[in-house]
Amino acid sequence: MGDVRTVTPVTLDRDFFRRWMAAAAAAVEREADRLTELDSAIGDADHGANLRRGFAAVAEVLDKEPPATPGAVLVLAGRQLISTVGGASGPLYGTLLRRAGKALGDAAEVTPAALAEALRAGVAAVAQLGGAKAGDKTMLDALEPAVEALGAAPPGEAFAAAARAAEEGALGTVPMQARKGRASYLGERSIGHQDPGAASSALLIAALREAEAAR
Ligand code: ADP
Ligand code: MG
Asked: Which residue has a Cα nearest atom 26 of ligand 1?
């Protein structure tokens, strides 16, 4: 039998990053109701609508004015999220993508290792902006393990490993008590629910695999 694993390309070009954002937009659209349900339990029931609006705007601007490089795709996507999402998640996701895009510089193609490094910088910027750390029941509980896995997994398995780590991280927020964001107002009553931002982060990371598979 042949090896049926997806082979991670040696380099990722601008179109890979456009596919990533398009896949993220589709996943958010598909899962918007679930994200809003999660946010209705421990927040204000707008997370699905926030991200649906934000990523639809990202997909639109990337279609209309496709940037020339991977870094520019992420910077534009991040800027778009910041300007279209009213909730806390807009500036946080916007910072993630903008910071990662800046870290990629103006290279026409980047390696998966460079992407892992760039996302690590983006996640650090999210932590700095929001003042949260692992265990606070936020998107960081999915993003941090995802970027760790992305950097550590062997080539060819990195995106799958990252998606798994993000999903496990998101599920791991269920027993946590929220210490940042709106959910923290609930104190102990935030325990027993999955964090909506961690759930959407798992979608964003899983979309990397779709961008890869669609090559
Ligand atoms: P809002 O809380 O303003 O309604 P959203 O519902 O769109 O915004 O997003 C809520 C999500 O944002 C939370 O589930 C959490 O993952 C994330 N979040 C909120 N505050 C922070 C923070 N300080 N640091 C990291 N993530 C945060
Ligand atoms: Mg909300």
From this structure: 138
Whose Cα sits closest to atom 20 in ligand 1?
A: 181
CA distance 98 to 165: 23
Please, what is the end-to-end C-alpha distance for the chain in angstroms? 22
Which domains, and CATH codes, for the chain?
Answer: 12-213 (1.25.40.340)
d(CA 30, CA 52): 9
**Count of Cβ atoms closer than 10 Å to residue 39 Cβ:** 27
Strand partners, 13: 109
With the CA atoms of 81, 140, 181 and 85 taken in that order, what torsion angle do they form, in degrees rounded to the nearest 10? 10
Q: Is the CB of 60 under 6 A from ligand 1?
A: no
Q: Which ligand is nearest to the CA of 204?
A: 1
1: pLDDT strictly greater than 50:
no
What lies within 8 Å, CB to CB, of 64 at 6+ separation is none
For 65, other C-beta atoms within 10 Å of its C-beta total 9
Q: What is the DSSP letter of 175?
A: T
Mapping DSSP to helix (H, G, I), strand (E, B) and coil, where does residue 209 land? Answer: helix
Q: What is the pLDDT of residues 51-91, one digit of tens each?
A: 999 999 999 999 999 999 999 999 999 999 999 998 999 99
Q: Give me ligand 2 centre to Cα 25, in Å.
A: 18
